[in-house]
Amino acid sequence: MARVFIAGAGYVGTVAAELLARAGHTVDVGRRTPRREAGSHAMDVLRPETYPAALREATCVVYCVSADAFTGEAYRAAYVDGLARVAGAAAKGAAKRIVFVSSTGVFGQGDGSVVDEDSPAVPRGFSGRTILEGEALLASAPIESATIRFSGIYGPGRDRLIRLVRTGSPVSPASRAAITNRIHRDDCARAIVHLVERPVVQRLYLGSDEAPTPMGEILEWIAARLGLAPPPVGPDATEVLQRGGSKRISSARLRGEGFRFRHPTYREGFEAILAGEEGAVPRA
Fold this sequence. Notes:
This protein has 10 helices and 13 strands. By secondary structure, the protein is an alpha/beta fold. The longest helix is centred in the first third of the chain and has 21 residues, at 72-92. The model has no long low-confidence stretch (mean pLDDT 92).
């Protein structure tokens, strides 16, 4: 069993910590605001003087920090400066591996093509460029690393599309036609566990479910499940639902190592939310 330290145990990291503990690993987490539970530590990734001894003692470190805001400064703090300091501390300690939770936002493709780990990463905006800089920094660190780029994360509390259908908000033709990629929170957490437990890891993975799907199809399925009319078609200037362009993210490398999605398509994932399973931590 490993001793794991998760830096930034929020929406995904909290579930990953629970699954790792259930599997028998010793797990500590570092957050700005710790919880009143064993293994929870107050920590600011930008301030090494706040790093707990558990970080130095961990054999595997998971960096699961999110930016505080959608600004260049916040992204640099989370994905470059904080990552560099935590990776440096891990490399000086007992860690043999660091797992970095990244984003498919580093890809700028918008032509509907299939994107995998060998596809060029040419970000469209500052967020993707900054995350890519962090990935390059980690790749040069003197420690084994695995980066996993997750696509659009949804799940309990992240049910924007369900709320949109219920309110009947209009959706532009461009948003309806865009091919979207998503992954349920619980599958994100399970993928992290997979990368912690693998005897050997590759340097880069893509984490996205098995069904890249046009947004309009997803909205129509949700509407049918709720017994409501699909959202009406609005003008081109209507709210954009797909910031990442139109592409088909492939998780074949992850699945090729034996990983199996609990929610392989949007249907299973949204069905779980609609069925009221939000509060349950998934089985390992």
